[in-house]
Design brief:
- The protein has 238 residues and is an alpha/beta fold.
- The chain has a single domain, classed as 3-Layer(aba) Sandwich (Rossmann fold).
- It contains nine helices and seven strands, in the order αααβαβαβαβαβαβαβ.
- A seven-stranded mixed beta sheet has the order 3-2-1-4-5-7-6, with helices on both faces.
- Helix 2 packs across helix 3 and helix 7 runs parallel beside helix 8.
- The termini are far apart.
- The structure holds S-adenosylmethionine.
- The site of S-adenosylmethionine (SAM) has 16 residues, from helix 4.
Length: 238
């Protein structure tokens, strides 16, 4: 009863915030373009998504269809050349499909669970998509720091998500963007907001585009062209 009450209050708070943010975003032409492209992107992904959640994973664990569609629309809009996919699965296929079509883009997919990474490899192979550049999180962390135009953060459990958020944002190039999944969860949102703002990111509230049947949604974090790294403290070039 107490937990249900807390969830209702949380949903009300998000809904009210949504009304205010939506009013601002609807005035921006780039946002209207991305929003207009969403239904077609969902339709294009739906058959593969239904197959994925029926035969590989399940809908409460895989990225939601609306967030997968947003990944596709943002890639089409921003045209990133370097993409980091943290938390492998259907997102790995969506991002690799974009990269394959773009011709000049690469995707690195990372997971904290080596067995799950293996499942992702098999799935990508079955789809006929590139199944290279797959790393476990420790192996990826041991690599020299690279910066990416676009990062999707959907790695592991809530605790893992909290523990890796600063590092995930550290991989975003100046002027680049990240989609942080599951910010409907207070335990993730409460660390994401202070870390992102300290690192010079602006959070764009894309709840209306990503809300799914479980009440999950994602948030867009846009990195300013300058600023400094939250982890290394290194100044970013402007
Ligand atoms: C929210 S899931 C990531 C979903 C992924 N981005 C996708 O698009 O399908 C977070 C973590 O759960 C694990 N995982 C994903 N699907 C799973 C499943 N069906 N069963 C168990 N673990 C899973 C992976 O280790 C992944 O890093």
């Amino acid at each position: 009863m107490y937990i249900r009450g807390k969830l209702v209050i949380r949903d009300l708070r998000h809904g009210l915030y949504d009304v205010r943010e939506r009013r601002k975003l609807h005035g921006l032409s780039w946002y209207r373009d991305v929003r207009a492209a969403m239904p077609r992107a969902q339709d294009a992904l739906r058959a593969d998504y239904d197959d994925y959640v029926a035969n590989v994973s399940w809908s409460g664990m895989a990225v939601s269809l609306p967030t997968a569609a947003l990944l596709r629309c943002l890639c089409e809009h921003l045209r990133p050349r370097t993409i980091l996919d943290l938390g492998s699965g259907f997102s790995s296929a969506v991002l690799r499909q974009y990269a394959q079509g773009a011709g000049n883009a690469t995707v690195i997919s990372v997971d904290d669970d080596a067995a799950w990474l293996g499942r992702t490899r098999e799935y990508l192979e079955r789809r006929g998509l590139p199944a290279d550049r797959l790393f476990t999180w420790p192996d990826f962390r041991a690599e020299p720091l690279q910066l990416f135009d676009f990062v999707f953060h959907d790695l592991g459990s809530v605790d893992t998500r909290r523990a890796t958020l600063a590092a995930a944002l550290d991989y975003v190039a100046p002027g680049g963007a990240a989609i942080l999944d599951d910010l409907h969860k207070h335990r993730i949102e409460s660390v994401a907001r202070p870390i992102a703002s300290a690192a010079g990111f602006k959070l764009v509230w894309v709840r209306e585009l990503t809300l799914d049947e479980y009440g999950r949604f994602a948030t867009w974090a846009q990195r300013a062209p300058g600023g400094s790294s939250p982890v290394t403290g290194r100044a970013n070039p402007g």
